[in-house]
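wait is this the right file?? whatever heres the structure
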């Protein structure tokens, strides 16, 4: 983890055309170097999030891309981009013609002992903060930062990944597509999952999960809906479950999972454009999908999602607090915490094995967190299908 306070870091500002290539690069283009405290959570990180109001007063110099010095100043981080527009001090440095298009180009991290710099391309930019993703696999442009030897390689790296960096949310990739990877923990007795989820989110915000932070601008989500599940008992290659979930437009989504035994990894598919109604659920599965099915008791699902992002790898994991209660018997409840891989905010990563290693690490931390608060005793892969089967075994009337 990064604890090196001697290395320097900068937020590099310049015209937005240097990112979206709507105009050619010119030697006269202003480039502004804002020296900031080191921001990486890990060394090197994949993701860096910068809050403007946390930067303090920053030494700032403006040069041309050709290296000519324009101006220098000391500017408070909170005054750099009020309303995501260059503030008065920046405007004075670069002039009124350039200032309206001035944006953060990248975050630049000095490597130890003059070993060059890592560049992190800007992917999200707001009045409160900005998010950057590492675009260089190796350090670039050794020498003094104001020599700008890193500038062309950094802009080139951004250009090579422009489709993913310059389009909203396209920076994400998904490893193990079509497979759900998930650890579970039964919560007994069932807690208030609202309070429990917010306490865990607070712990992640405060850095208690090493190397991770709440996912940038997607840290918490809520879900509440009825679920109609069918046990798929055949053919043998189709065994698992089929679950109908209502959509806001009045239709239904169909979630399929394929597995014989409760397990960490399960094949998963979600279909959103199907024409069904509650009275035709079973017929659809039998006649359209040619499945052998057994209805399970419908249940109400309430879920609060804490989204956790690894700053080290860019992988995003969901920690879900989940309460399922049977519609016909609301006193029968399954309360669980689930932790699963969601997606990866990364340009450079192509190693899915890192996901499995990191999940194992987070699983250890989360299990320790939950047991320390007497919320669970051990990890499990206990599924909702098994819960519903067990409920029917205990009370067959639930299928009447």
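ok assuming it is, sequence goes like this
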């Amino acid at each position: 983890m990064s604890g090196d306070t001697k290395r320097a870091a900068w937020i590099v500002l310049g015209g937005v055309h240097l990112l979206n290539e709507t105009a050619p690069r010119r030697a006269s283009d202003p480039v502004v170097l804002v020296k900031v405290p080191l921001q990486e959570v890990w060394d090197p990180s994949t993701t860096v999030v910068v809050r403007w109001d946390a930067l303090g007063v920053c030494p700032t110099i403006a040069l041309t891309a050709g290296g000519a010095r324009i101006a220098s100043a000391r500017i408070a981080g909170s005054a750099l981009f009020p309303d995501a527009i260059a503030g008065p001090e920046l405007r004075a440095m670069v002039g009124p013609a350039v200032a309206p298009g001035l944006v953060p180009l990248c975050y630049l991290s000095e490597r130890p002992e003059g070993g060059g710099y890592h560049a992190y391309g800007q992917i999200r930019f707001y009045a409160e903060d900005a998010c950057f993703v590492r675009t260089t696999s190796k350090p670039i442009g050794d020498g003094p930062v104001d020599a700008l030897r890193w500038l062309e390689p950094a802009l080139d790296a951004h250009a090579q990944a422009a489709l993913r960096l310059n389009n909203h949310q396209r920076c994400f990739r998904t490893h193990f597509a079509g497979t759900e990877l998930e650890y579970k923990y039964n919560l007994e007795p069932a807690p208030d999952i609202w309070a429990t989820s917010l306490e865990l989110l607070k712990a992640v915000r405060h850095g208690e999960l090493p190397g991770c932070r709440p996912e940038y601008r997607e840290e918490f989500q809520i879900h509440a809906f009825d679920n109609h599940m069918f046990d798929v008992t055949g053919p043998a290659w189709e065994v698992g479950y089929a679950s109908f979930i209502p959509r806001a437009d009045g239709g239904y989504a169909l979630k399929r999972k394929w597995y014989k035994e409760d397990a960490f990894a399960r094949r998963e598919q979600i279909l959103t454009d199907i024409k069904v109604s509650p009275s035709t659920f079973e017929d659809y599965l039998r006649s359209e999908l040619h499945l052998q099915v057994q209805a399970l008791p419908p249940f109400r699902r309430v879920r609060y999602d804490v989204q956790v992002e690894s700053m080290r790898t860019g992988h995003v994991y969901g920690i879900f607090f989940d309460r399922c209660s049977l519609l016909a018997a609301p006193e029968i409840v399954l309360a669980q915490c689930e932790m699963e891989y969601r997606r990866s905010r990364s340009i450079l990563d192509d190693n899915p094995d890192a996901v499995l290693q990191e999940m194992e690490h987070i699983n250890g931390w989360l299990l320790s967190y939950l047991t320390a608060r007497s919320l669970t005793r051990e990890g499990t892969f206990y599924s909702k299908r098994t819960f519903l089967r067990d409920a029917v075994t205990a009370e067959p009337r639930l299928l009447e």
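The chain has two domains: 9-165, 173-399. so i think its the right one actually
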